[in-house]
Design a protein that fits this description.
381 residues, mainly beta, Methylamine Dehydrogenase, Chain H, 5-stranded antiparallel sheet, 4-stranded antiparallel sheet, 42% strand
Length: 381
């Protein structure tokens, strides 16, 4: 029997104490993180909820009605293959393999949380999965060069990252009928995230050594930020909405980029081939996967420093994935290790591995708490 996520199954964590009325009245985001030494102007983007935390609604137990009782499963695309493996995380076994199309790169939750989309890059298709059954809902749908996928606010349009074509393709989020295309000067268009008010997207250009900033409403480029010598990968907004964190595989660390001014503020060294970034369920930490030396760096975004480094026994190649619904585990695909890893978020020890062939990549842990998905493997808000 498949595990079903419910409030009785997942422990509910207590509030973290950041919602002081005195703090809320004196700081523009409603929360002044400990140790934060700068007080930069912040757009209305950061005024999210009463605490001001971007990931406030992605905490333990905060499920939407759509996701509250769906089976807890892992969806693992074989990026060097033609299908998605579905894993039961409680038993640690593959329970299904489903053909999708050549080179599936990511499994992406839809904005309304009702569909998981496999982006089959070289097949030029996306395959819908029904998270209630853990199986494909129907045949693959034609979409041009779908390396990755995100969703615009309101959920009406999917924003497809078309890496080879250096463009963003916009599609009907339900039918995947094409609507419009915007070309970018962005070789290796890769990953993205939104500002807290969802008005602006920042995306990485892996082979262009830069980032691009894009206005959501007008669908126009606002500018580029050059990062010489870089190869930027995953992009994640920090929990207070002030900065984007950008993993860089070539320089082995994370850029800190001001979300308002779109300027580089700093760089945190984590490890070689830094790749994925995932917020903890309480929003206090960011987990950075370092694919080159089998480590995970724990970043404190309020103090802007690496506070812990977890090392996989014997090395490995931790890549994309997500945090478990209860926040106790970090699941990552071992891109060059033919397995996925379950890592304790308490002390970083390796809990288990599951063998998955053909370069497992953009794994989706599902369900996840949150009101809606902005895409990727679960950018929940």
């Amino acid at each position: 029997m498949l595990a079903v996520v419910s409030l009785s199954f997942l422990a509910i964590q207590a509030e973290d104490g950041l919602e002081s009325s005195a703090v809320a009245s004196s700081h523009p985001t409603g929360v002044k993180p400990p140790g934060l030494q700068h007080d930069r102007a912040v757009s209305g983007a950061t005024k999210v909820g009463t605490s001001g935390l971007v990931y406030r609604h992605a905490g333990v137990g905060d499920f939407a009605s759509t996701t509250r009782h769906v089976p807890y499963l892992l969806y693992v695309p074989e990026s060097a293959g033609r299908g998605v493996d579905v894993v039961d995380p409680l038993r640690g076994v593959v329970i299904g393999h489903y053909p999708t199309g050549l080179d599936p790169q990511h499994v992406v939750p839809s904005y309304d949380l009702k569909t998981l989309w496999s982006t089959n890059d070289l097949a030029n298709t996306v395959t819908p999965f029904d998270p209630r059954t853990g199986r494909p809902r129907g045949p693959a749908v034609a979409v041009n060069d779908p390396y990755n996928m995100y969703f615009l606010p309101g959920g009406r349009e999917a924003m497809v990252v078309q890496e080879q074509l250096q463009q963003l393709g916009f599609y009907d989020a339900q039918t995947m009928a094409p609507r419009s295309v915007v070309h970018l000067d962005c070789p290796g268009l890769d990953h993205a995230d939104f500002t807290a008010d969802l008005r602006v997207v920042v995306a990485s250009c892996e082979f262009g050594h830069r980032l691009v900033r894009f206005d959501v409403e007008s669908k126009t480029v606002l500018g580029y930020l050059d990062l010489p010598g870089s190869a930027p990968q995953d992009v994640r907004l920090g929990p207070d909405g002030r900065d984007f964190y950008v993993a860089d595989r070539r320089l082995g660390g994370v850029f800190v980029v001001d979300a308002t001014t779109f300027t580089r503020r700093g760089f945190l060294r984590t490890g070689p081939d830094a790749h994925g970034i995932y917020p903890s369920r309480d929003g206090r930490s960011l987990y950075v996967s370092n694919r080159g030396n089998g480590t995970i760096s724990v970043v404190d975004p309020f103090r802007e420093r690496v506070v812990k480094t977890w090392r996989l026994p014997g090395g490995g190649s931790p890549d994309m994935g997500g945090v478990s619904p209860d926040g106790r585990s970090l699941w990552l695909a071992g891109r060059y290790d033919a397995r996925i890893y379950q890592i304790s978020t308490t002390d970083g020890h390796l809990i288990s591995t599951v063998a998955v062939p053909n370069k497992p990549h953009g794994m989706c842990v599902w369900p996840q708490p949150g009101r809606f998905s902005l895409g990727h493997t679960g950018n929940m808000r």
